[in-house]
Amino acid sequence: MARLGQKRASRSATRRVLESRTAHEQGETEGVIERLSYEGRGVTRSQDGKAVFVERTLPGERVVFAVHTSHRRFDEAHPKEILVASPERVEPMCVHFGVCGGCDLQHASIETQRRHKLETLRAHFEQQRIDAPEPLLLAGAEAGYRRRARLGVRVNRDGEVLLGYRRRGSDRLFAITQCPVLVPALESLISPLRECITQLEHPRHVGHIQLNDSDQGVEVSVRLMKRVPEDLERLNAFACAEGISLSVVVGRDTPSVECINGEAEHGYTLTIDGLDPVSLAFGSGDFVQVNASVNQQMVDRLVEWCGPLAQSVVVDLFAGIGNFSLPLARLGAQIQAFEGQQSMVTRLLDNARANGLDSHIEGHVADLSRALRGTTLASADLVVLDPPRAGAEAIARQLADHGPERILYIACDPATLARDVAHLCEGGYRVVELTVADMFPQTAHLETMVLLER
Ligand SMILES: C[S@@+](CC[C@H](N)C(=O)[O-])C[C@H]1O[C@@H](n2cnc3c(N)ncnc32)[C@H](O)[C@@H]1O
């Protein structure tokens, strides 16, 4: 097999390697990959038995690797050559794979990726001694699924405009020419956008660019440090030519938003289907589930698991802009929604009103890294919680002591999920349904849905 591209370690990583007494010589080592780590790297051992995590490799492969970062108990490495390839290895779909900080599993077949996610979840549950049914899988397209992205912009010393993402393991930006995990309507904008920024009077004033695919089509938001009228005209011409909506956010401390082309003043929405669909307006600072098809399947499964909900009281914790609250309210449930950001609670309540569901939803701002005071979670019929990666340990302990009959936990981190589910099981719950949702194909990230009953 061919030699693989040289990966340059960041300066601080290089310094750590040189300073570390346990670092490998800066040579290359041969090894056989034993297994995949949870975050999708091949694991082998150095001659002295130290674990080495080699990115972009698969179990069973014989590889030549070079260590780029050394720690006391393990090393991190990149492959130089694949001597014996796994039959599960595939050609990565993106030319930037290995450099880009986004995807980490493009070298594995989609079946391998999904099996790995199921095994990762099982392993976390086993570590916590949680008794659970075999996880099922929800999945959509393996590429072209991301409906939101943030692109960085940098102008290098030669005046060349770089539009792209951060490098793997670094803060540094690199230029992209493609991103096959984006929905086609967003991916096709990469080159024209770069061209447009290059032709601005002041490309250095561009901070970052956010792309959203919505019910109204593509919406682009450009962050500008300064308002330059000629550049606004050029951005407007670009938006008209591409048939997209475009707004600019100008200034640093108190930025102002200006719509320069399209429908921004009416808002952008995402629709969730059902017998009676709901549409959610969102803003660029709001949390949005990036994979529309998998999100729809999650909402469908939630509805299927939770059965008839008319007149039920549902507490939706970490509610965002109402992704679960509104479909549940549509089924007749009374929703108490809690969310940390005031702006998203406001949006959730606006969304409830716009969908004729305001009499079914109350929204509250609350910091859910702590137990929720003044609300009797036990008297709800169902608690839905969908925390960020840190999980919801305090809430899980509270629910373990005073929780309702049923809890639906949606999680983007299997380790903190398993920790919290273990608390719930100690409190008398058992896992009755378990599903892995492949929300982020080509990466090792997994989304999980767990239904627990007392
Ligand atoms: C994974 S998102 C889920 C949002 C929503 N359920 C959805 O499906 O779109 C997690 C949400 O938790 C909110 N959040 C994060 N930390 C929080 C905290 N300490 N207290 C309350 N909400 C928090 C975020 O603002 C975000 O909206």
Fold and architecture overview:
By secondary structure, the protein is α/β, with parallel strands linked by helices. The chain has three domains: 79 residues, OB fold (Dihydrolipoamide Acetyltransferase, E2P); 191 residues, 3-Layer(aba) Sandwich (Rossmann fold); 119 residues, Beta Barrel (OB fold (Dihydrolipoamide Acetyltransferase, E2P)), CATH 2.40.50. Helices cover 24% and strands 30% of the residues. Helix 9 links the parallel strand 20 and strand 21. Helix 2 packs parallel to helix 10. The longest helix has 18 residues. The radius of gyration is 24 Å and the shape is flat. About 5% of the residues have low confidence. The structure holds S-adenosylmethionine. The site of S-adenosylmethionine (SAM) has 19 residues, from loops.
List keywords for this structure.
454 residues; alpha/beta; OB fold (Dihydrolipoamide Acetyltransferase, E2P); Rossmann fold; 3 domains; 8-stranded mixed beta sheet; 7-stranded mixed beta sheet; 23 strands; 24% helix; binds S-adenosylmethionine; 23S rRNA (Uracil(1939)-C(5))-methyltransferase RlmD; transferase; methyltransferase activity
In brief, what are we looking at here?
With 454 residues, the chain is of the alpha/beta class. The protein contains ten helices and 23 strands. It has helices spanning 11-19, 110-127, 184-187, 190-198, 229-242, 292-306, 325-330, 342-354, 393-402, 414-426; strands spanning 29-32, 35-36, 42-45, 51-54, 62-70, 74-84, 136-138, 148-155, 161-166, 173-175, 206-214, 217-224, 245-250, 256-261, 268-272, 278-282, 313-317, 334-339, 361-365, 382-385, 406-411, 430-437, 447-453.
